[in-house]
Design a protein that fits this description.
It contains 8 helices and 6 strands. It has 178 residues and is of the alpha/beta class. It is globular, with a radius of gyration of 15 Å. The termini are far apart. Bound molecules: uracil (2 copies).
Length: 178
């Protein structure tokens, strides 16, 4: 499962690996976390099909002996899939990459020593392309605190600014305390 969306998009989202729903439907980010990602994309003012969405891993990590469980990809698995991601980057040439969660950040930047809580909201670079690390939508589903939604949203505002997209006053204020 390589990715989905517009190959001419300036904006590319990179996740970790397909889960069960994605495996079944052959499309990245279609399960619960994916539906939240779609809402975030829409809240940014895009349609899902006008951005590009991919994962570090192109297939679901196997979980021998387990009926379910989305284990973290092994470094060798990420290495194996990297050429596909590089080929995608060559074709898409995004202006900005959003790295969703710690594993996506590790897949792109390698082990940085800084955790995702420290890295998020701070521009990084991958092969000359600005990378914005943020929390994975699955994290937002587990931790529904407004403050966490706001953090992800502030990262997305930085992305919109970098892309030179207009930001409405209303958009700036999403997920702030009343
Ligand atoms: N989580 C991911 O990181 N990628 C998907 O495609 C789905 C869930
Ligand atoms: N929509 C959400 O539900 N959460 C976000 O962080 C952004 C948009």
């Amino acid at each position: 499962m390589f990715g989905v969306g517009d190959v001419d998009s300036p904006l590319m989202f990179v996740g970790e690996a397909p889960g069960a729903d994605e495996d079944e439907q052959g499309e990245p980010f279609v399960g619960k976390a994916g539906q939240l990602l779609t809402r975030i994309i829409q809240t940014m003012g895009f349609r899902r099909d006008t951005v590009y969405i991919a994962n570090i891993l192109k297939c679901r990590p196997d979980t021998p002996g387990q009926t379910m469980g989305n284990r973290k990809p092994a470094p060798e698995e990420m290495q194996t899939c990297l050429p596909y991601l590089l080929a995608q980057l060559d074709i898409i040439e995004p202006k900005v990459i959003v790295a969703l969660g710690a594993t996506a950040v590790e897949g792109l930047l390698g082990k940085t020593g800084d955790g995702i809580t420290k890295l998020r909201g701070r521009w990084q670079q991958f092969r000359g392309v600005p990378v914005m690390p943020t929390y994975h939508p699955a994290y937002l589903l587990r931790n529904e605190a407004l403050s966490e939604k706001r953090k992800v949203w502030e990262d997305m505002l930085l992305v919109l600014e970098k892309l030179g997209r207009p930001i409405k006053e209303k958009q700036r204020n999403y997920f702030l305390k009343a």
